[in-house]
Amino acid sequence: MMKHYGRLTILISIVILLPSVVPGAMSVLAYYLSIVVFASSVMTIGQCGIVYFRANALITAIGAIVLNDYLRLIGSLEVATWTGKAALYSLYLIVLLFGTWKAKNSNR
After folding, report:
1. Using CA atoms, how far apart are residues 14 and 8, in angstroms rounded to an integer?
2. What is the DSSP letter of 106?
3. What's the number of CA atoms in the CB half-sphere (13 Å) around residue 19?
4. Closest CA to 44 of 34, 55, 60
5. Which pTM value belongs to this model?
6. List of residues 6+ apart from 2 with CB closer than 8 A
7. Segment 27-81, tens digit of pLDDT
8. H/E/C letters for each residue in 73-90?
9. Which of 83, 67, 82, 81 is closest to 23 using CA atoms?
10. Is 65 in contact with 75 (CB distance < 8 Å)?
11. Which SS3 state, helix, strand or coil, does residue 108 take?
């Protein structure tokens, strides 16, 4: 059952990449949703290993660093401040560190 859930999280992460390139609030909302999906992929670590977690981590990172209109490193919106970006990137790092910790402490 968790394999289906892990595949579903990857599919949702890929679909969320589409609104990331829309300028304005849609890209920030897409980022928040991708963080929620990424955080929910942590649940798959116990039964399925880290495959789905790593895939979601990669998709979310690419979406934030390259595609997201508000967060991307080169060519982001003018209203994007570095403090706002740092706060949003820290959400990603918190989920990544928690998932890495859980993977390290799991018995798989």
Report:
1. 10
2. S
3. 15
4. 55
5. 0.89
6. 43, 44, 46, 47, 48
7. 889 999 999 999 999 999 888 889 999 999 999 999 999 988 888 888 777 777 8
8. CCCCCCCCCHHHHHHHHH
9. 67
10. no
11. coil
